[in-house]
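Consortium newsletter contribution from the modelling node. Members have asked for a concrete example of what our holo predictions look like. Here is one, prepared for the zinc ion complex that several groups have been discussing at recent meetings.
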Amino acid sequence: MDPYVNLALDRADRVRAIYLRVSHVERTASWLPIQVICEQCGRIGTTYATDWDGETVAYACLPDMVSWARGCGHEGRLSPLGGRAKLPWNLEWAAKWGLLGVTIEGCGKDLATAGGSRDRSDAISREVFEVEPPRNVAYEFLNVGGKKMSTSKGQGAAAHTIAEVLPPEQLRFLFLRPRPSQVIEFDPEGDTIPRLFDEFDRIAAATAGREVKGELPADYERLFAYSLLAPSPDVAEAAGAFRPAFAHLALLAQIPGVDIAERMEAEKGASLSAFEAAILAERTVSARAWLDSYAPARARLVIRHDAVPEEVAALDAAQRAYLGALATAAAAETPGSGDAWQGLIFRVAAETEMPSGRAFGALYAAFLGRTNGPRAGWLLASLEPGFVVERLRAAAG
Ligand SMILES: [Zn+2]
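And here is the predicted structure:
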């Protein structure tokens, strides 16, 4: 940074003029754009430097310069080179652009306002360091639960909490999916996190060339590739990998005695590759963290293994008949996956002219003793098939 420190001090008059012109901040004629480290007490925020002679500056460590620290009163002269001082941050920002050859750099939109930090650094880069500043991309805010994320004010969620629930690739996906100029609204409560995983999996499937429902974002293959963590990822392998549906996994994670890996191999219909096993392990950790933090009450469940829940008494004859028909169909077909169960639940509902909402209500009552629940197909797929048929018959009466 020394060449930039020299330039900033040689051209301190230009720096002061830029502060005044761009940001209407007036510095006294003796002010220098440098913060030296006090040789006596080691503080940097309390020193005031003046009188650059081309080799050294004079400085004083002032007791009352700032409210958050007290200078020791030392006065002296030193060379500001070799790490004994730093540039104020607007100059440091511009110096790094020159030093590192930066051609594009984004910044938060709060820095990109007219007369703000970015304008100041751009002017310093051009007029003091004589380097064209990088192209700017102003980023929008990340709002967490409708509030601007600000951990220092206790607003929103702490980044480390989000990072415990979301693996790196889903976190990258969250940020890469919207345009840079679009506010990201992220409310970790409710179904936001399962939906984010589902959307990631949908984009993965589309990238793998499979047909998916719904519209795809422009450049979805690049969106997927850039969400991957590996520096040179095998995009085809990553896109084609088996990924357990997050909500299903969160469900399985709550059922005692379930061998999750075994269930997933049954679902896939083949053994998991090492790559897929790693995805499963990562997602299982996420699902447990989600259940401990943001999951809504309806995602938490207790399977009523011991006896038919008394809530079944509230079902009407048509709902009981539906459960009986489903038991017969399930005994004949033994659906092997959440998708297969889901398909069967809908098919039998159509055959018995049962609206799907009432069909699901009957299933939740029979297995959970509740009126609502997670995707019923996944719920049933997570249970022992013999138990499911037996319970359907018992609840049908
Ligand atoms: Zn000092």
